[in-house]
Write a structure and sequence with these properties.
The protein is of the alpha+beta class. It is 64% helix and 12% strand.
Length: 146
Amino acid sequence: VMIRASEGRHVDVAAAERGLAILLEACDRAVEEIGSAVPTAQLRALLIIGQAGSMNLNSLAKALASTPSATSRLADRMQLAGLLTRDRAAASRREIVLVPTESGQQLAEWVRVQRRTALGQVLADMSPQAREALAQGLSQLANEAR
């Protein structure tokens, strides 16, 4: 599958997917030592909440593309594991927000550092022009996904 890039140029989506697979594998290997201690769904939720600082349950459900009830059960398990707490929102005492605990914050930061290190190693093997293009493309993707 090819998609139009610019000025008659095209992007090979299959080749981009193979590159993405390499990045994902590097990120997965970077955090393998966590093993099954923290399930993938909890880790993903923790990183999403950590990025926001705090988040209500419905916002997390939307970010996870999940239902509020499934997300609530996930949050219950994360709370039992000591990764987050449920607090009252400052703006609305009726709203409950999910906030990473100190250990949850430390775990999320450790994961981000491991992933950045792995990404840096993958990027180091690329040409400077390719590295810059990938970094710029990923940054734009992150900005547009918000």
